[in-house]
Amino acid sequence: MKTSLNIIVRPTEIDVNGHVNNAKYLEYLEWGREEWYEAGNLHYDVLKGLGVQTVTVNININYRKECRQGERLNISTESHKLGLSSFVLLQQIHNTDGELCADAAVTIVTIDIRTRKSRPVPEELRALFLPASS
After folding, report:
1. Which DSSP state fits 99?
2. Strands (E), 14-70
3. What is the per-residue pLDDT across 26-62, written as a single tens digit (0 to 9) for each?
4. CA–CA gap between residue 39 and residue 57 (Å, rounded)
5. What is the 3-state composition of the chain as percent helix, strand, coil, each rounded to the nearest 5?
6. Does 15 participate in catalysis according to the annotation?
7. Do 77 and 9 touch, CB atoms closer than 8 A?
8. Contacts (Cβ under 8 Å, ≥6 apart) of 92
């Protein structure tokens, strides 16, 4: 599954160098992941009802091009790799000229909400990694 989220860079996201602070890109990616969960009908309460939470355990990000205040950005998030208790999402941030500003591979683990230990990815979440039906 692949999703897309459009945002506008706000003044509070700019650092002393006049561009988006590097930590804000991580926040943008988080917003993109939340959009991905929502599009898959797996918002927090649904996951909690399944007895799981998802925890980000690794983000490998490449900063490709600076972004500035007022720019419109698109954050895409797509299913990439599925393991037993973990999965990887690929994310990209593009500007309106289509230039790649950042890309990341994000590894996420599903944990049991009671034991706080990893557990298998539930079928409802696994389904988001299946090819789309035509």
Report:
1. -
2. 52-63
3. 999 999 999 999 999 999 999 999 999 999 999 999 9
4. 22
5. 25, 40, 35
6. yes
7. no
8. 75, 76, 100, 102, 103, 104
Helix H or strand E encompassing 102? strand 100-112
Task: For domain 2-129, give the CATH number.
Answer: 3.10.129.10
Contact (CB, 8 A) for 32 and 5: yes
Catalytic residue among 15, 45, 103, 112: 15
Would you call 6 helix, strand, or coil by DSSP? Answer: strand
**Residue 68 is encoded by which pair of tokens?**
């500035």
Q: Which residues of 92-115 are buried (b: 16+ CB within 10 A; e: fewer)?
A: bbbbeeeeebbbbebbbbbbeeee
| Weakly modelled stretches of the chain, pLDDT under 70 | 132-134
